[in-house]
Amino acid sequence: MYINVIGAGLAGCEAAWQIAKRGIHVRLFEMKPSKFTPAHKNPNFSELICSNSLKADRIESAAGLLKEEMRQIGSVLMECADKCRVPAGGALAVDRDKFSSMVTEKIKNNPLIEVIEKEITDIPNDAITVIATGPLTSDSLAEKIIALCGGSLHFFDAAAPIVTAESIDMEYAFTASRYDKGGDDAYINCPMNKEEYENFHAELIKAERAPRHDVDVQNPKVYEGCMPVEILAQRGLDTLRFGPMKPVGLRNPKTGHRPWAVLQLRTENADKSMYNLVGFQTNLKFPEQKRVFGMIPALKNAEFVRYGVMHRNTFLDSPRVLNADFSMKKNPNIFFAGQMTGVEGYMESGSSGMMAGINAARRLLGLSAVILPPETMTGSLSRYIADESVTDFQPMGANLGILPPLPELIKDKRLRAAAHSQLAISSLQLAMCKYINHT
After folding, report:
1. What is the CATH number of the domain that holds 292?
2. To which H or E segment does residue 357 belong?
3. What are phi and psi of 3, to 5 degrees?
4. CA 253, 189, 385 angle in degrees (round to 5)?
5. Cα–Cα distance between 249 and 332 in angstroms, integer?
6. Which structural domain range is residue 386 located in?
7. Using the 8-state DSSP alphabet, how is residue 243 labeled?
8. What does the DSSP 8-state code read for residue 254?
9. pLDDT band at 219 (very low <50, low <70, confident <90, very high)
10. From the CA atom positions of the chain, what is the Rg in Å?
11. Considering its fold, how many domains does the chain have in total?
12. Per-residue pLDDT averaged across 155-177, rounded?
């Protein structure tokens, strides 16, 4: 009796650890050191490719809350990260080599984890399997995943920013659908007059863009529908007004007139706590996105829960493919974990691996799946990847915007974050008493 885990990155190692922790033999497949992706250099497991920072450590932050939840559940990644930390102010940063080495040692020394150094080119059917091969999944396995998922695999990540609903200034915005179709609350519209638009356009075309790396441009073709908004703007002053900012079919009820230009915001989740900037795929640097998009009056105080990105990626259309326990809708004996599921970030990947591992083990043991409460960051991320109301699915990192609204309105950001954290931890502890500690 065993479970397969493919990939020994952050998600795969965490999944393997959680399965073994529940007394089940794990066969962990990893193609390193015989084969590396273009981004990997270290033969050890859980290699940190980019930054050595795991983001904020304060429990009152989204990233800090996620890490604290993982600590309480018994994450091997957090155990190693806490032991390998280096000075980084309010962030948890680690010595990346020591971190990878420690995770590798723990995995290889676990008597229930059998490490098999082998590239997997097909999906095993001999046992419950967790696929955690990351955004640079090898072509042969990616083809099998595409076939398994009915073509639901994205190879290019062109995402528009997302802002919190409560940070949109409705004094300047109005709700309406174009030509009054689809219901008044289908979109939040952010109008601009001619002067505002032209100032915005001028700053947009000269804003600083993020660098593109070789690994990100293996397929350099960018489809018209994914064209960065700053590139569209370079085609002419009125290009956006006839594209993603077209005002036709919209009338501002506060003025009675059609705006000169309009940015539409579309709800990103069922709770309507987050809104997507429609048609604003971008490759601008993050501070520039906040500065330039903040020139739109309704977004002058916007809180960005995700900035726009444009790079090579591999992720599932998870709301159509996965359940909230990270198992496949069509084949519940196959689980996915890591960035491939549409979570974004080191610890987000580890968190998904943790829950996929727990649920794969519970499935083998004949127990019901664990989906943590929505008040927890872990639970909200699990629910986001399975939220079928999200039609244009894009990767998401930990942020307070995906948590359900608090019982009472708290305007102060710090106090609101603290209240979310307190509620999350208390909800997690109740869930652990009911599920996790009983396996």
Report:
1. 2.40.30
2. helix 346-364
3. -130, 135
4. 145
5. 45
6. 2-152+317-438
7. T
8. T
9. very low
10. 22
11. 2
12. 86
Cα dihedral 31, 35, 37, 40 sign:
positive
Altogether, the residues listed in the chain come to a count of 439
- Pair 242, 372 in one domain: no
Neighbours of 438 (CB within 10 A): 9
Q: Residue 91 belongs to a domain with what CATH number? A: 3.50.50.60
Enter the tokens of residue 344.
């974004």
Question: Distance between CA atoms of 321 and 154, rounded to whole angstroms?
Answer: 13
Under DSSP, the state recorded for 118 is -
CA atoms within 13 A on the CB side of 254: 12
Q: What is the pLDDT of residues 289-323, one digit of tens each?
A: 999 999 999 999 999 988 987 766 678 999 999 99
Q: Are 89 and 97 in contact (CB under 8 A)?
A: no
Same domain? 239 vs 323: no
Domain boundary among 283, 310, 337: 310
Q: From the CB of residue 273, how many other CB atoms can be counted at a distance below 10 Å? A: 19
Residue owning tokens 């983001």: 55
End residue of a domain, out of 310, 342, 363 = 310
Give the H or E element holding residue 313.
strand 309-316
Among candidate residues 159, 156, 160, 158, the one with its CA nearest the CA of residue 312 = 156
Task: Note the pLDDT tens digit of each residue in 358-403.
Answer: 999 999 999 999 999 999 999 999 999 999 988 878 888 999 989 9
Q: What is the pLDDT of residues 46-94, one digit of tens each?
A: 998 766 789 889 999 999 999 999 999 999 999 999 999 887 777 898 8
352 and 325 part of one domain: yes
Identify which of 70, 142, 125, 136 has the alpha carbon closest to the alpha carbon of residue 357: 70
pLDDT computed for residue 37 by the predictor: 66
Positive or negative torsion for Cα 350, 152, 322, 387 = positive
Does position 220 have pLDDT exceeding 60, yes or no?
Answer: no
Contact of 80 with 101, CB cutoff 8 Å:
no
How many other C-beta atoms can be found within 10 angstroms of the C-beta atom of residue 299?
A: 25
Q: At 315, which amino acid appears?
A: F
Q: Which residues contact 110 (CB under 8 A, 6 or more apart)?
A: 16, 17, 20
- 206 vs 39, residue with greater confidence: 206
Res 172: pLDDT: 96
236 shares its domain with 328: no
Side chain identity, residue 330? K
Q: Kindly report the backbone phi and psi dihedral angles of residue 313, in degrees, each rounded to the nearest multiple of 5, phi listed first.
A: -155, 165
